[in-house]
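Give me the fold.
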Amino acid sequence: MATSYRLSIIIAAHNCDAWLKDTLNSVIASLGEASPRCEIIIINDASDDDTQSIIESFAATHPQVHHQQTLFRNIGKVRNHAVSLAQGDYILMLDGDDQLLPGAIVDHLRVLDEQSPDIYLSKIIEQRSDNCSNIPGWHYRAPVSLTNDEVITRFLIHRDFQAHFIGQYFHRSLLQRNPFPHFICYEDAWLFPLLLTKSKKTIFSESGFYLYRKHATSLSTVMNPVKISCLLAATAHMDEVLPVKFKPLITCHWIDVINRHADVLKQQNEWERVKKRIHEQHLGSFLFNGKVRMSYKRKMLKVRRLK
């Protein structure tokens, strides 16, 4: 008889042997007494370091662990494959170099049981990779319910949360019906806004429990033309799936793209396309929108003058 799990914890691992033991130990500490209610799925994608041996040693002492090796070299495919293996009602995703705070999942499972949301969001605690020894304590704060408009607005203005799937709880059915694109990065930025529109109940807590290790070589830090293509597709997808009333806030994301990646956009002949999208935004509606930050209003005026 198959085991019934409330939560599937999915860990994507690639060449993370320097951090993976701490990540796995933090998962067990965060689960605490709730461990029997959860399965842990680890996908080792194309690692050529000691990642696999660490996974195998961990699995030998934790029966709820399932692991596979893949050669996708594509994070979107890795996440979809892991979701296809999951049995839990909810899915929580981690990267193989991050950590969870002790005892947090115990509290989160109680909330999932009591409220049955489609999505349970919380803040992520960013840590520089050279300063990860200071682990904060876990302090539970009850979540609040957000309307679809509220959660989309907070997402677009990067208030409280961004397009991270790591450290957030999603009902498995959402991910089964709406798979990740086959992107090497920004797969979460493409899917996240769509799921916000699909969710019938979204809750949010100010209490962060996910320690996100920010590297100088993180996928979204070191850019190249392929990654820029993924970023453009993810940003354009927001225009496609979010209601038109959010266009001014989406335009802020287009402004970030053109300001941060001008050289690559010109090399890829995407400069005019992005500039055209920004010019499609009615200037008055943008400048007089109370939700658009003043800094973006100044940036908009500068972008409109670009050749």
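The longest strand covers residues 202-214.
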